Amino acid sequence: MRTPVNGCDWLTVRQGERADIDSVPRVEPDAFAEHVAAARGRGERLAQLFGRRMPDGGVVLHAFVADDREGTMKVCRSELRRSDGRPLQYPSVTGRWPAAQAFEREIAEQYGVHPIGHPWLKPLRYHATDDGSPAPWGAFDPNKPIPGDYPFYRVDGDEVHEVAVGPVHAGIIEPGHFRFQCHGEEVLHLEIALGYQHRGAEPLLLHRNATRSAIVAETLAGDASVGHALAYCTALESLAGAAVGVRAHAIRGIALELERLANHVGDLGALCNDVAFLPGASFLGRLRGEFLNLTLEICGNRFGRNLLRPGGVLFDIPPEMADGLHSRLDRLQPEVVRVLDMMFEQSSVLARFEGTGVLSQEQSEEIGLVGPVARASGCMRDVRHDFPHGVFQFSHLPVATETTGDVYARAAVRWLEVQRSMEFLLELLGNLPSGRTFAAPGPLCPNAVAFGLSETWRGEAMHVAFTDDAGKLAFVKAKDPSLHNWFGLALALRGVPISDFPLCNKSFNLSYAGHDL
Amino acid sequence: MLQILRTRLNQGHRTTKFPLELPVLPQRFRGRPEIDGTKCPEGCRECADACPTEAIAVSGGLSLDLGKCLFCTACVDACPPGAIQYTTDYRLAVNRRKDMVLSTGDLKLAERMRDDLHRILGRALRLREVCAGSCNACDLDTNVLNTVGWDLSRFGIQFVASPRHADGLLVTGAIPRNMRHALIETYEAVPAPKVVIALGACAISGGPFAGSPEVNNGLGDLLPVDLYIPGCPPHPVTILDGLLRLIGKMPSAGDAR
Fold first, then answer.
1. CB-based contacts of B34: which residues, under 8 Å, 6+ apart?
2. B254 pLDDT above the threshold of 80
């Protein structure tokens, strides 16, 4: 159990630790925004900001600020209580720290809380508040047919035109709505409206059937099942004080990196497709499946479902399977390298990638990007490196960064990560630690809070879990990296020809389901 | 250019011979379950209680609803006598919702679409995919059929951009309130005659999200469904097998094994 350091209004917690809920320092609502935004000045990063409804009708805000250099998370809270029938409100963080924009929209939408002074307060997922109270923009109308029915930001002018795309897209992808304001080919402004995928997932993370909750965690963003399951398991194991065996940790790490490989290789192939380099698209499209099939071998599902559970993993990798996986990966490695070398040597590919959809490091820091997209703009952040947990305590992966912040950089970071993940897997599969793979985690500590972080292939997934007086799971907050990054895509499109939108979009490849929950 | 040709040669021919050669899936792959209620101890309902989606019923004999099944191992792990066992049989697609309730290992696999439909759609089936509240896994493993590994177009099946160019919809996801309208509009934009395919546990029953007030628990009665493909997500070969059965291109359909 962690207690706050005297004289500091933040509680410092590391991954794997739990804290007494009452030990989280309270900050007055009026001082909350300034207190949280001060972390920005110290070079820290906003990892989570959410509300939780209290039995008395009030809402407690929780801020989690990551100190990536120290590998610590700092936590504080602020209690908003109703007075004189006024809606709950507090001065907004976003005005001081734009990285809070989506978090504060979520808080406003879930609980009807007003973040006063939020520069662009609008719905995030289009649903009613938990108690039916009106959100700051008005009461939710369930009869309104679609989230895209909303007054988008408009640019007016004789030669300005508007392009609307979605929710049903041309490809086999998830639904969302994109509204472009264009002058000729040039995009002046892109506004993204999501919420079509909102399934009401968060309450289901508390389902009485523990298997169901774990599967909901795996399907928050189905292409990052292992990453989300890892964050979810870590949060619950931390609450239980459970020690997971090194072998289980290693198998989790293998699954996480296979997931990264499949998605990165698939993304690189899709990027080739978007610039009409079809050899790259078809080779990489097929190679993506090879990695999914390695995961299938381990747990019977191509997406790693049913492998991670609180307490360890449900499937072992016996020695003969490890040998088989090792030799398949050993054959795959030169093939992947050869195809990627070919891709990155095509001037027709590079000409479309370079200088397209640029985000500066300053912009990325300001809006709080995570994952390969942030690393492509020169931001040093990778949960595996900064918050090492499980197998990453023993195997140190270097952080792959680029500096140009364009489509090229986002592709090149993936390329580097593909190489490093394959090396990591070959090493681990050749040298799997022994020990048990699963042990039930035992009872959860009452009145406690803990978090789990994982570096999914898209970036940081974070699950925060709270228990009640009886040690029962009472609240789980899940965050997909896409929540941070969608705004980055909108920014990257400014001044870009609209015909480059598919390319820019694929270079981010964000989750709609993970955002909408 | 030479490098591209060299890499192309190195890649070789990669398209599966399916359905002439049938794939062998790994031992741990969870396909059609086999159910043997005679192994159940008197009054036992451990598997039903363990099931995350209440897919298992024990009253009136053991049965499992494949439309709700997430193909996890909760029931298998809960049952030492082994009354429920997964096989590696990937063939799961059926025509009717009720055909998905299994009480033995037998599954009435999907049959070819009606003759009048088949005359029009059977030789070139064009589908619009609508993702409505899926986690993206069903969509990704549908997309896989377009890779060189499966080469879907050799069967005359193609995914098209516009519903107006399509012969039907392939729907994934639990159908959130926020996608319901767009789904129905897309369906209406498809010219008749048309087919609807429900892909994955979410589209069939709501899957892991069944019971959430934000979703419709899958297609339900929203649209008339011609083909159900269970799974979470179904393996690409399960999806392809279902599509080929629907257009009558699965050789010796009844006894593929």
1. B84, B85, B86, B87, B104, B105
2. no
Interface pTM (ipTM) of the complex?
A: 0.94
> Alpha-carbon dihedral of residues A127, A128, A134, A137, nearest 10 degrees?
0
- Which range is least confidently modeled, A114-123, A380-389, B99-108? B99-108
Instruction: Give the HSE-up count for residue B167: Cα atoms under 13 Å, Cβ half-sphere.
Output: 18
B52/A contact by beta carbon, under 8 A? yes
Selection from A489, A178, A189, A163 nearest residue A358 by Cα: A489
pLDDT in tens, B36-81: 989 999 889 999 999 999 999 998 889 999 999 999 999 999 999 9
d(CA A30, CA A409): 41
C-alpha radius of gyration, chain A, whole number: 22
Q: What is the pLDDT of residue B164?
A: 96
pLDDT of residue B76: 95
CB contact under 8 A, A219 and B141: no
**Could you report the per-residue pLDDT of A118-128, keeping only the tens digit for each?**
999 999 999 99
Residues 6+ apart with CB under 8 A from B139: A172, A173, A174, B129, B131, B172
Beta strands in chain B (DSSP E): 33-35, 56-57, 63-65, 84-86, 101-102, 125-131, 157-159, 168-172, 195-199, 227-229
CA A247 to chain centre: 26
Q: What is the pLDDT of residue B252?
A: 62
Domains and CATH numbers, chain A: 11-116 (3.30.460.80), 233-477 (1.10.645.10)
Q: How far is CA B178 from the centre of its chain?
A: 23
pLDDT digits (tens, 9 = 90+) for A327-345: 999 999 999 999 999 999 9
Q: Is the pLDDT of residue B253 over 70?
A: no
Query: Is residue A8 over pLDDT 90?
Result: no
CA distance A315 to A149: 46
With tokens 């002074």, the residue in question is A117
Task: List b or e across A385-410, with b for residues whose CB sees 16 or more CB atoms inside 10 angstroms.
Answer: bbbbbbbbeeeebebbbbebbbbbbb
Q: Where are the domains of chain B?
A: 115-251
User: Are A513 and B133 in contact (CB < 8 Å)?
Assistant: yes
| This model's pTM is above 0.90 | yes
Query: Has domain B115-251 been given CATH number 3.40.50.12280?
Result: yes
Q: Smallest CA–CA separation between A274 and chain B, in Å?
A: 15
**Mean pLDDT score across all residues of chain A:** 94
Contacts of A21 (CB under 8 A, 6+ apart): A447, A448, A449, A466
Q: Which residues of B touch A201 (CB under 8 A)?
A: 209, 212
Burial class (CB in 10 A: 0-12, 13-18, 19+), A6: exposed
Strands B101-102 and B63-65: antiparallel
Mean pLDDT (chain B, rounded): 93
> For residues A338 and A30, what is the distance between their CA atoms, to the nearest angstrom?
58
Q: What is the DSSP letter of B60?
A: T
CA distance B112 to B114: 7
Chain B positions touching A170 (Cβ under 8 A) are 161-162
Q: Using DSSP, state whether A418 is helix, strand or coil.
A: helix
Contact (CB<8Å) B28/A289: no
- Asked whether residue A396 carries a pLDDT value surpassing 50, the answer given is yes
What's the rounded Cα separation, in Å, for the pair A393 and A401? Answer: 21
Average pLDDT over residues B222-229: 96
| Inter-chain touch A297–B28, beta carbons under 8 Å | yes
The amino acid at A170: A
Q: Is the pLDDT of residue A6 over 50?
A: no
Nearest residue to B215 (alpha-carbon basis) of A199, A335, A511? A199
Q: By the 8 A CB rule, do B58 and B43 touch? A: no
What are the backbone angles phi and psi of residue A102, rounded to the nearest 5°? -70, -40
| A512:B8 CB<8 A | no
